[in-house]
Structure formats: structure tokens, C-alpha cells
User: Fold these one by one.
Assistant:
Number 1:
Amino acid sequence: MISFVQLLDFIGTFAFAISGIRLASAKRFDWFGAYIVGLATAIGGGTLRDVMLNVTPVWMTDPVYLVCTAFAMLFVIVFGKHLIHLNNTFFIFDSIGLALFTVVGFDKSLVLGYPFWVSIIMGTITGAAGGVIRDVFINEIPLIFRKEIYAMACVAGGIVYWLCLQVNLESYMSQIIGGATVFLVRILAVKYQITLPILKGENDEEANGKE
């Protein structure tokens, strides 16, 4: 019987893999290269999390993640022309994957007995690290290092998840609310152009001085 968290994990894998493959196709990668980018996007954060938690990465014990990425690849191949015309496709699938993986990482850390603050960090790593690897592979500045609200959406979702548990909400309801928080924070931040302050460097000061 598949648990609710496992279901979230599979859906998140599919969504993140599509986001990676979609960007790889825009960069004119071949099928193998696009699959690798999609797979790295889907399992990169979870792998880093599991290594830090000293457990075997989940994809090494269950091939479903490799298969799920293959289905995502097939999905992009079949519906690629439609996806290209949908400018928000990458953003939506990336936001879904970010939300679901944050919940999965948070839950796994709690189950292993780690305190909530460690779980929030692990949830953020699970959600955001795959995107970092994806962006490095396609030679882009990772979203997490730009001024967009990305990793902070994971942190917000993790905090809300933990607060839901503190008021004795059912586990699955806490997971839904936590994931929805990540998704909504990400969507609203982009829609209303809410960003974090940019850390100014020497070049900015020199530019201001010339003005």
C-alpha cells in the first residue's frame, strides 16, 4: 500500500523531472542529455538529503524514480509542441515539485527523529537542491541564488507544516497545508514581484559614485 508521502514523492518526481527536461529541450539537449537533467532535478535534492541524514538514497533501493523520470521524458516528447507554447509550464511544474519535495524531506527528517529546525533545512534542501543541479547542468545561474523567492518558500512551508503538527492536525492535513504554503508563496512572490533584497557589492558602490 502506497502511503500519502510516497504518493507526494512520486508526483513531485514527475513534476520536477518535467521541469528539468523542459529546460533541457529549450537548450537543444539530445534525449539522453535531457533525461539526465530531468533525473538530476528529480533526485538531486533527495540524494543530498539522504547522504546528510546518513541513509541510503531512495533511488538506489527503488527504481520507480528512474521509471518515473522516463515517463516524464515520454510526456515531454509526446506533448512537447504544446508545452513549448505554454510559457508557464516550467514554472508550474517546478513550483509543484518544490512544494511536494519540501514536504517529503521535512517528513522524512521528522520520522528519523531530527528536531524541527533540522527538518526544515532538510525539506528546503530536498525541494531546492535538485533545481540547483539542473541549472548548473544547463549553464544557468541557479534560481536559489537569484533574488526570486525560491528556497524561502520552502522554509515558510516547513514552518507552517511544523505549526500544524503542534496543534495536533492529522499528518496528511499538515502535509497538504505545508505543501500548499510553499506553492502559494512561490506563485504569489512571482505574480506580485516580491523579492529578497540584493546584497550590494563594490561594483554597485562604484556605479553609484559615478552617478
Note: The CA atoms of residues 107 and 146 lie 27 Å apart.
Number 2:
Amino acid sequence: MRKTFFATLLLMMSISAFAGGMIPSSYDFSADNGEGVTLYYKNCEGGAMLVLPYYDSSSDPSWITWTEYVYTDPVINVPAMAGGLTVVAIDHNALYNSPSIQSITLPNTIKSIGGWAFAGDSSLTSINIPESVEYIGESAFNSTGLSSAHVSAKMAEWGMSLYQGCFNMQHVTFDEDVTVIPERIFFNCERLKSVTLPASVRKIDIGAFSACDSLAHINLPANLDTIAFGAFTEAPLEEVIFPASLKNIQARAFRGIVAEEITSLIMEPAGVLEEEGIEGAYDWDTETSLPLPKLRVPKGTKALYQADPEWSKFTILEEGETEGFVHVRPAQKAYKTVREGQLFILRDGRTFNALGTEIK
């Protein structure tokens, strides 16, 4: 799927941030990790920090050059001790762009992981994040080969672009107390098809799932308050259910939606949807956006939605109107209904909840 200008802009912002912050630092000592792999360190507060080595020709006052170091070992085990010091940190770019690395093991002495520390390690499929880690910098795992990720509450505090561009990312989970899905955390994860968010999530931040070309299914938790700018741009969602708690859908939050029908449980829709907050998928052959999906709203609220300048752009179906049948599979029909504030799907004489689980 082609990316919109917006998705490209987000990527350029990320690259620019990286380029501007990539300042090489020399190393103080090197040490064998006990398995024949030489790693490079700088002295830092509390111990030693693993760094990216480079050649410094600063003796020439007119020019300083540095050469990027690439690790060629497939397995990197970082020791807890090096040079008589406790290894407490991984520096910015420390193992950056080393495509031979397949596995990294970190000791439980690590407290800090710098931005872009493992970015570009395209063969990296395995890494542990010790519980001792208190900070992870931007884009630490950008464009790695990781296929799964678990986002802890700590990671959600500083997780901007953490897994951006992970081309093999397919499975993601979250701690039950995560309240914010960070900015661009899964931007351009093209194989990510389905995501289940915990009930604790209140905000999905800027571009969090933008350009996820395969993302068809995601639940929007009952306590969700804000869906930020471009959160799902170019994510071809097949079904969307807005919880009653939602207060703000920002511009381009849903650009490229392919669902035939979306459901809103919001009882007071005025001011919730910003201009261009929801747009149909783009047809590159005709260079036009496809029609907006139908909008199903709670019983008794149709007039409120029709009075809102943004929601009124939809074909609005109130709960109970029969035009709301949607095709689930060929020769199958499903009907959505709201009971006591919860959405249920009736199909073939069976009842399912909003996540597709059958209610016995």
C-alpha cells in the first residue's frame, strides 16, 4: 500500500531526529565478554556504559572523522561486569545498524538504554529487557527484525518510536496499567494485523499505528479519551467501535479506513470529531477517497450526530435501523445492537461481543 504524505512526514521527522542526535563518543576501554566478543565501554556514573567505538582524528583541528563500527557476531551477550565495573547502561547507537546480530542478552544490572541503541539490526529477533531498566530512548528498536513486543507501563512513559519500522512485528501485548500508547511506537509495522489494548488505555498518541498496512482489527477500550493526530493513518481497519468515553478524535486519526460501517457509542458527539478525523481509503486509480463508512449511533442520538458539522458527513443509522446489516462473510449477515452501553453482534442466531467472542 502506498503511504500518504502524512506517513512519509512522520518517517522524515523520525529520521531527522536521529540524524540530529547522533553524536559519536569515544570509548575508555574494551573488554572480552567471556565468549570471545570484544565490547567497548565508557566510564559513567555508577559503572560502565556500552558504547559504539569510532576512530577520532580530532588532532586535526580542521576536521573530525569517525567511522561507524558494525558488530558481525550473531549473538551478543552483554556481561554484568566489564573492566572491574558494573555495566549499567547502553549508550545511544551502541549496537546500531549491525545486521548480523540475531540475539542480544542484557544483564539485570542495566538501568538505561539510549536512543537508537539497536536500531537497524535487521536480523535481530531476540532481546530481553531486564526489569532493572528505568529508561529507554527513542527508536531503540527501530527497524529491527523483532516479531513480538511487550509494552510495560515504564516503556509507555518514554516509548516514542520504539518499534517503528519493525517489518516483522506481528504480536504485541501491554501491561494492564498502560494508560498511553506512545507516539509512533508501532509506526510502519507492516505485518501487524491485530492489536488488543488493555482497558486502562486513555490515549492513543500521534501516529501510534500509522502506516500499519495490515492492521485490520483493534479494540478501542471503554475508558479511551483521546485518539491523537494520525494515530491510524493508512491502517486499513475493517471494524471500528468508538467507546462512550471518547472525547477527542483528532485530524487524520483514521485516514484510509476500509470498514463498511463504524459504530459510535458516544451519547454527546458534539466537538468530538475534528475535521478530516475520519477519511475513507484512497483509490490511487481514480485519485479520490472512497466513500465514508456508514455510522451507527445509539438509539435517540441520531439528531445530535446530524447536527454536528463533522459527524453529519456520514450516512447515520440509529441502533435498530435495518439498513445497518454488514457483510461478515459471503452469504452471512450480522446485526449490531447496543445493550446497557455495550455493543453486541448477532449472527446466525448467535451473539458475540465487540471483540468477536461468542456470548453463551
Note: The chain has three helices and 31 strands.
